[in-house]
Structure formats: C-alpha cells, structure tokens
Amino acid sequence: MNPGMGSSRDATDGRFTLFYRDGWAHLTVEPPGEFGRPVYPEEVENRMKLLEVPKVRRRTIEEIINAAQGTPEPLTEWPAGKYLSATYRIEISDDEMEVYLTVHPPKKGGAPPGRADIDRELGNAGVVSGVDHDAVTALLAERRYGVPVLVASGTPPTHGTSRKITYRFNTNRGKPYLEMEFGRINLKELNFIEHCKENELLAELLPPVPPVNGETVTGRVLPAETETREVQLNGGANTRLSSDRTQLYATCDGNVRLDEHRRVVVEPVVQVRNVNYETGNIYFDGSVVVEGHVADGFIVEAGGDIQVGKGVGKARLQAGRNILLKTGMNGNGEGELECDGDLFSRYIESCQVACRGNILVEEAIMHSQVTVWKHCVLNGRRSEIIAGSLIVGGSVWCKKLGNLNEVRTRVALGVPPDLLLEYRNAKHGLETQQEKLNDTEDKLEKLKRALREGHNDERVTHAIRQLEESLPEINSEISTLRHRVPELREQLRASKDSMLVVEDTIFRGAAITFATQEYHVPDKGARKTILRPGERGLIESGFDARNKPTLQFETPDN
Length: 558
What we know:
Layout: E1 15-21, E2 24-30, H1 41-51, H2 58-67, E3 73-77, E4 87-92, E5 98-104, H3 115-124, H4 133-142, E6 149-153, E7 164-167, H5 175-178, E8 195-196, E9 201-206, E10 214-215, E11 221-222, E12 239-241, E13 247-250, E14 254-258, E15 264-267, E16 269-272, E17 282-284, E18 287-290, E19 299-302, E20 306-308, E21 316-319, E22 323-325, E23 329-339, E24 343-355, E25 359-366, E26 369-372, E27 376-378, E28 384-386, E29 388-392, E30 396-401, E31 409-413, H6 417-452, H7 458-491, E32 500-506, E33 510-514, E34 517-519, E35 526-534, E36 537-542
C-alpha cells in the first residue's frame, strides 16, 4: 500500500529524558510511532555532555534505546548532579502542631519531586505523625512550588468532660440583637416567648466524654485532662424529671426559659388579642403576649416578659424581665414603661421609661423621660433622640441628637442612674430648703415689723411662734444637704467604658454630660462625633463607619 494512502499513520518521533535522581543519572526512552524517527545514541551523548554526566559505554545507551520501555532506567552514578534536584524547606510550629512544606522546583535535568522524596524529607525533619497525604498529593499534582503548604497537623487532646446538659429550646432569646454590628434591628423577628407543650422534652443530661490523648507531629504525647465536676439536671416550676434523672419534661403548656439560677422553668403565658375594656387590666406572675394593641388608660404588669404586637397608647407596662413593643408607644405624656430586663421598641414617644437592662430602639426616642441602667442604642433608618431627658448608666448610640429647631435634649451618661438621681434630688432639695428658709425669714421679718408698729394681734404672735419653731428643722435639713451634696458629687465618676456615638449630627440645643464633665455643642452643631470621658475632660473623636467602636452587652437573662 502507498504510504501516503490509508486511514491513519503514526509519525510520532521517539523521545528521551535524561535526569538526576538519588545519586544516579536516569534515562527514559519512549519508542517512535510506525513512521516516526527513533532516538539516536548521539543525541543522548550530547545531552550528557551538556549536563556533565559521566560517560558510559554506547552499548548501554543503545540497550535502553532499543528496549524503549518508557520508564526511568539507571544509566550511571552521578553524585555531582545533586545540585539539579528540587529543594525543600520544612517549618514546624513552636507547639509542634503544624508543619508547612515549601518545595522549590528542580533545575533542568533534575527529576520532579515525588512522594517518596517528600516522605523522606519529613522523616528526616522528625515528622512522624499527622501527615496529610491528600495535601501532599495535591502539592505534587498542582506543582505548588515556592509557597508554604500545610502538610501535617498534630492531634489536640480531647479533654474528658463531666456530663453536660443540652437544652431543647433557645436559652438566649434576644442575644443576637445585643451582639450585632449595629445592623437594622428587625423587631418582627424578635420573640422572647418560646411556647412548649405538656410532656415536651426540654433538656437532657448527656453522658461524660472520656479523655483521649493528643499527639504532636513529632510524636510527642499530649496528655488529656479529665473534668470531674458534678453536673445535675434540675428543673424548676412546671417541669418533671425522668426516673433516671437524665431528661426533663414540661408538665404544662407555657413559656420555657432559664431562671436566674439556670434552672429550666415553664411559666404560664397569658395571650390576648388586645388589652381594653374586654380584658381589663392584666396582672400576671408569668409572661403576657398581646397580639394587638394596649388601649389608653390600661395597665399590664407581668413577672416575666411583656410582648405587644401593635401600638401602645397612654398605658402602663411593667415587666419583671423584658418588654418587646414590635410597633412602639406614644404615651401622650402619660405612658409608662418599666422593666428589669431589656426594652425593645420601634419608637418611644412622650413616655416615662425606667429600664434596668438595655434599650434598643429602631427609629426614635422623642419627648420622653428615659432612665436606663445599661446602654441605649438606636440603629434604624432615623435613629433620632429628640427633646426630653435621658439618664444612661452605660453608652448612647444614635444618628442624630436633637433637631434643627434646637429643642432642648438632655443626655447624662456613664454614671449609675441611682447615684445621679440621688445627687440631683439632694441638690434640688437643698435649693428648695434654702428658698423655704429665705421665705420663712422674710415672713418673720414682716410679722415682727408689724408688732413693732403696734399691730399686737394674737394671730400675728401665733404666726411668729409657728415660723420660729419651723426654723430649726429647716436649718437642720439645709445643714444635712450641704454635707450630702458634695459627698454625692465626689462619687460622680463617669465609667471609662461609657461613650456617646452620634453617626450623623449633634444639634445645638443638646446638653451632654458625663458625670460632672459637660460637652458644649458648637453653634453649628457637631458631625460624626464620639465622646468619651477622660482624666482632664471629655475626649472627642470622629466617627468612622469603617472602624466602628464596640459596646459590651451582657447576655440577657431569658
């Protein structure tokens, strides 16, 4: 058949590779195709001269070429070829728990690194445990040269633990909203009430975990410790333990939570559509859920949480734990909110507020008298504090403080409210008693003048006697308060962790104090401001949205 005719023809030329490995020159020859050119001994000899490989008999080369097995064949010893090999850098961490390998590629004529090479290098470095064979394989396959690759890891010890309790309900309801990076609060997703059914499994006591020793990459044993703490599963109200005391169940429907002693309790829940003339006032030891509104003039008092789905008017809400107002409250000057836990609301307007936890509001606090023992944070679209007065034991965070009309907005922060209120009351009492003393002395002077002028009336004499009898009591009260006011003032020290963060504007008209340190707002207001108390006055800095300060929130007790 004509060589030019036919369906296919293999014209692949033969190929060879000459390289160094383990002290020897190796020759690999691949055979040619049917019509390809073979490898000639002279080609191999020329390559050997170029790489300075010691000479060998031509017949040895010809035998390898004729066999053309396609596999490396030892050609001759070549110790000097070592400089062509790949090099390895092995870094073992100080604690011997990580090994990083950096492979530098071979020079032309050196064999590519292989698995055996790496195993040998790791062994020479003392690495005998925790080798990640997949990572080594990937390193070789992908030729990840010149970069450190984690190729071995030690095994940390598994410390033995005592029995542990696993809870079948969320024990930290509200916590995600106190640890946020100040993204928008979504009150619709927040829920402090977690319903459970009678006979529902609430908690389990897990078996202990046995200790297992660890091992470093060099084979050093890391002894595991054993915890011997006694753990028991204890239930509170409306719960029951299984016979083996390892499972806890509810004995009624209600709200499951942990009490202040970390015991699981189930409290009954009052759930109503609205609080109005159909329900009357609500006084309840457990938690109260109002799906709709709380009408004007009504009272809701709960030993647990209060949760309201819609608006609250001129009402009074008092909770032993948290209050959640998914819409908000406009008290029209008569509304009252009081809670021992945290207060969440979309807005607060024209209210009296006393909160011993944190206040987190979406949009605005307006025309309200607010006392909060921890932090007050506004982080919605508006985040405004307008008019009224705030006493905050921790920090305040908002976008705007005051408004363009320069309405008076007072904020005192960084001092325990109890102490600040006592100081203010004592100071006001001293001023009141001093005015009372002045008024009494003026009246006495007028009455005595009347006597001197001849108005000797029994009523005048009686009035003088009454006024003179009241003077010692007034003077005693003034003397007491004159000592007490400086004592309280001396105790006023703003916490070094407190701060005022205003992301947008502080308007003129805002009055800001940290204990006895006062901030004077410039005539044009202040933009993007952070204030902190310092040893010699307030420290003012700019607010940077890319580098926000952080607030430390305590986990709420739910």
